[in-house]
Amino acid sequence: MKIAVIGATSHGMTLAAYLKTIYDDVTLVDLEIAPLEAIQLHGINVVGATTFQVNNIAVKTAEQLESDYDLIFIFSPSRSNSLLFPMIESKIKATCMIVSFQENLSDWRTIRTFTKQPVFSAVCHFQATLKNTHTVSITTDLEYFSRHAFDLCDYKQMHPFNAAEIKNILDAVGHTMLTSLPTNIKWSKTLFSSAIDRLSSALNCSYGDILHHSTALLTAIHIADEIVRTAKKRNIILSTTGGANFNDLIINSDTKLEELVPVFQMLILPHQYTRTNILKSELFEYDIIDDLVTEALKVDQPTPYLDLLSYCLHFLRDRPFHENIQLFEPLILGNTLK
């Protein structure tokens, strides 16, 4: 099995390091040369919930991608697809399996590009951050990691044997669940990323800070509420992750705001030591928040919390926690921001 992991992101490096302990032929690929040079010199150092180092992993730029890979995992930011996808598509063989871990609302562009190859959608359910260009910290506790690390979906439901093979490979890293709804897993991952991960970025804080700060925690719940309402209007069914049914993360007459507090505490707790986007090279994916706002506009769903989150990410990300969290207080109190 010849495997390529495209994208020297925190999750891409984590998966590449784990796979290299099992398979001989694993290559980490990136568009930028700087992180690859550091990894070539120092290897990949995994710390946090578990600790190990891989010193002999092959690295290549996207231009150096070879043609005989059996399996490619894609972690690179979706904004690089217009440059990256033609490089991949022109070289790989028809039997190469493509697994997109990209954070987006749909892998439609991947499907349309790789028409000859079996394509799968996937998401990670553990959290990891880059400490430097060659060190990644797993900030999710190992018990959660082993219980539910990945979701995997055959987009066209045409490759069950390939899906089983990929699941077997990922299971060696952490438990993988097969699902039949790609939009389900992508939107559910986006909900967690937006309400917790991107909020952590906007506030310059850890997940634990959100967990223990009442205004931040209520803000996360309201962001989730806006995403669930948008999903419902688009007839998208969300998944159950971390013991919580994401379809129920909505504030209405049946579910009070106070009732969602322990649900979110349960969701955040296994990842409380995560602090997002330590390196400039992995800074702020605004795209997913802006995509959500666009989708909400299409179905006339108001998104005051997502709008403010987007504003903070674009323009106020370097301000300290106490300054940015104050911006959300009028919304929490039911007032309208000028």
From TrEMBL:
Ranges where the Ketopantoate reductase N-terminal domain occurs: 3-140
One Pfam family here: ApbA_C
Domain of life: Bacteria
Annotated Ketopantoate reductase C-terminal domain residues: 185-315
InterPro entries named among the record's database cross-references: 6PGD_dom2, KPA_reductase, KPR_N, NAD(P)-bd_dom_sf
Protein name: 2-dehydropantoate 2-reductase
Organism expressing this protein natively: Kurthia zopfii
